[in-house]
Write a structure and sequence with these properties.
Mean pLDDT: 95
Helix content: 25-40%
Number of strands: 17
Bound molecules: alpha-D-glucopyranose
Largest sheet: 6 strands, mixed
Low-confidence stretches: 1-22
CATH superfamily of the largest domain: Glycoside hydrolase, family 3, N-terminal domain
Number of helices: 20
Structural class: alpha/beta
């Protein structure tokens, strides 16, 4: 028996006892909820359970037509007018206005993935992805980062962020490894709570600078076999509870208002149809009083027949369904409404299950004060991308950097160095610096958003006026350097697009570093990656090597440390494999190149 399952019985008892007492009590709104619910028709109730992607709506007026409770912008669903903050504010306000034209004027909740800042809009501050925040091991800093994120999201009229991901990624081959703070359950719980507090404030309430958080993806998304995205997590219940449940127990206790269900399965059963885990464990045992939202078209994966998908997911305990498709498309939100109405009429979904779902949704809307108005403070919109916000992200970058090697103490570099060559396309590529979920779902290389600073730009503004900085993207022009900074790493990706059998540094990157090493000058390698990569000869060919993860827009956070204004503080949030044969490199004692928690200080 693993050490985890040995302590599980004790742990579960403490957990269950502690939580039901500690969880934030949203039921205080239940008088108002019951009064509203008693006035609602079945159509109005089912409408509240629908979250349609904005691209599924031909016209915002469909929010009123179908009494929709929520609209989202998926990773690539942007306002027609463009991607500025104002474009988003106008877009979202249009949908919110339609909801107030309905008979009962139930306010709309608009949701987006704000997973490392308000990563959907041009000019927003992009923070390090969660794996980098995990390397800070600093809950207070995570809380500050998410407070800024909440302010920038609210500045566009949006009051719901599908964040934090509290996955506990067990296998680096998973394309979403970077969305997890760590492969250590305790750290994921602690940083996940800090994120929720930053997003929602100390108590989910009517503070217009806060947003509804969404812990995701329940349950076991990071534990699938071979790290296959949306795959199957195969383990006994004791392990599932000990390794993946604590972040949700902690999130419930911290008052998270929504939780998103995972695409993945547990021992072959789709999470979206698992009544035991969705209802008995999460809502019953842990006392979760908020609402459960599905993932993007995730119920479609339960069975070939959509009506069966609807029946099994709603009866399992799903409260709101994320539906990307509109009339004319398969499994569209109108079909969902019709199917659920039929299922109620046929006695296959009980009216009290509908009432429970709508009660949970309305509880949160009342708790957030949305019924008292949801106007956006223009000061929040103005503050998007502000120097103050960028300063918080810059600190996150500084504290996320992990120094893996520093032979001969080549770091920190001197500002007065004579000739510095910066090599590697990633050095001047904001898209690679930010990674996936940046402006577009998959992210993209190049100058993805205004207001950011690439590492090359940061170096140029940091060194002395007499220093010659030369940029050689392909590393073909290294002659005459006193030192060479080589920047390498992964191109942006998200979700299953990032799944890989071999999380290795590419041969091109390894050759670039080798060419730099051949000059005989000090080589400082900076790695942009969403996970530890098998380094091959890159480590031995580097004088110093820094894991920078996916730092986001504030490249000066890297030079702050590279040139010694701040010390290296980061430590590995998960072990670093030496070879592919060591993968999955588990914190629980697998062989590795660098253990969990490793990080040199200078
Ligand atoms: C995606 C992701 C989820 C995200 C949702 C909406 O497929 O799994 O994390 O919140 O769809 O974009």
């Amino acid at each position: 028996m693993s050490k985890i399952s040995a302590i599980y019985p004790v742990f579960a008892t403490i957990l269950a006892a502690g939580l039901s007492a500690g969880a934030q009590d949203f039921s205080q709104n239940d008088g108002k909820v019951a009064a509203l619910l008693s006035q609602m028709t079945l159509d109005e109730k089912i409408g509240q359970m629908v979250q349609a992607d904005c691209m599924a709506l031909t016209n915002a007026s469909e929010v009123a037509t179908y009494d929709l409770g929520s609209v989202l912008s998926g990773g690539n669903s942007d306002p027609a007018a463009g991607n500025t903050a104002q474009d988003w504010l106008d877009w979202v306000n249009g949908y919110k206005a339609e909801a107030l034209k309905t008979r009962l004027k139930i306010p709309l909740l608009y949701g987006v993935d704000a997973v490392h800042g308000h990563n959907n809009i041009l000019g927003a501050v992009i923070f390090p992805h969660h794996i980098g925040l995990g390397a800070t091991h600093d809950p207070d800093l995570v809380r500050q980062a998410e407070r800024v994120t909440a302010q920038e999201v609210a500045g566009t009229g949006i009051r719901w962020a599908f964040d934090p991901c509290v996955a506990v990624p067990q296998d680096e081959r998973w394309g979403r490894t970077y969305e997890g703070y760590s492969d250590d359950t305790r750290w994921v719980s602690e940083l996940g709570v800090a994120a929720i507090q930053g997003l929602q404030g100390s108590q989910l309430g009517a503070d217009p600078q806060t947003v509804l958080a969404c812990a995701k993806h329940y349950l076991g998304d990071g534990g699938t076999h071979n790290g296959v995205d949306q795959g199957n997590t195969e383990c006994d219940e004791a392990t599932l509870r000990a390794r993946f449940l604590p972040p949700y127990a902690a999130a419930v206790k911290a008052g998270v208002g929504s939780i998103m269900v995972s695409y993945s399965s547990w021992n072959g059963v789709k999470m979206h149809s698992n009544k035991y885990l969705l209802t008995d464990v999460l809502k019953g045992e842990l006392g979760f009083q908020g609402f459960l939202v599905s993932d993007w078209a995730a119920i479609d994966q339960i069975a070939p027949d959509y009506k069966e998908d609807v029946e099994r997911s709603i009866n399992a305990g799903l409260d709101m369904v994320m539906i990307p498709y509109g009339p004319g498309q398969k499994n569209n939100f109108v079909e969902f409404i019709q199917d659920l109405k039929s299922l109620v009429a046929e006695g296959k979904v009980a009216p009290n299950r509908i009432d429970d779902a709508v009660t949970r949704i309305l509880r949160i809307k009342f708790q957030m004060g949305l019924f008292d108005g949801d106007a956006t403070d223009p000061a929040l919109t103005q503050a998007i991308g502000s120097p103050e916000h960028r300063a918080v992200a810059r600190q996150c970058v500084r504290e996320s950097l992990v120094l893996l090697k520093n032979e001969g103490h080549v770091l920190p570099l001197s500002r007065k160095i004579g000739n510095l060559v910066v090599a590697g396309e990633a050095a001047d590529d904001l898209g690679m610096q930010c990674g996936g979920w940046t402006i577009d779902w998959q992210g993209k290389v190049g100058n993805v958003t205004p207001g950011g600073t690439t590492l090359l730009q940061a170096i140029k503004t940091t060194v002395s006026p007499d220093t010659q900085v030369r940029f050689s993207a392909d590393g073909s022009d290294l002659a005459g350097a006193d030192a060479i900074v080589v920047v390498v790493g992964e191109k942006p990706y998200a979700e299953m697009k990032g799944d890989t059998k071999k999380p290795d540094l590419t041969m091109d990157d390894q050759m670039l570093i080798a060419r730099a090493q051949a000059t005989g000058k000090p080589v400082v390698t900076i790695l942009f990656s969403g996970r530890p990569l098998v380094l091959g000869k890159a480590l031995q060919n580097s004088s110093a090597l820094v894991a920078a993860w996916l730092p986001g827009t504030e490249g000066e956070g890297i030079t702050d440390v590279l040139f010694g204004d701040y010390p290296f503080n980061g430590s590995l949030p998960r072990p670093w494999p030496k070879t592919d044969r060591q993968i999955p490199t588990l914190s629980s004692g697998g062989k590795c190149l660098f253990p969990d928690g490793f990080g040199l200080k200078n």
